[in-house]
Amino acid sequence: MITMYSTTWCGYCHRLKSQFDREGIQYQVVDIERESEAAKYVESVNGGNQTVPTVRFDDGTAMTNPTIVQVKAKLAEAVRS
């Protein structure tokens, strides 16, 4: 399952969650304003910035503010591997 790092006020996060729901993609959401370790992770993959949405995949890779097309391509790649 993928993890989406988010905030409650992020419009891009809300849009991506809706797209995940529509596409049937399972995910968990972690609010970086409530979990300091999550905020540190997001900073570590975004040059020190708390940029959301940041999506972490099961293979440990991450994408920042990805499109649904990018996420679906990454998930399809993981299935082929």
UniProtKB/TrEMBL annotation:
By its UniProt entry, which InterPro entries does this protein fall under?
A: GlrX_actino (IPR011915), Glutaredoxin (IPR002109), Grx-like_ET (IPR051548), Thioredoxin-like_sf (IPR036249), Thioredoxin_CS (IPR017937)
Glutaredoxin domain mapped to chain residues: 2-59
Which PROSITE patterns does the record associate with it? GLUTAREDOXIN_2, THIOREDOXIN_1
Protein name per UniProt = Mycoredoxin
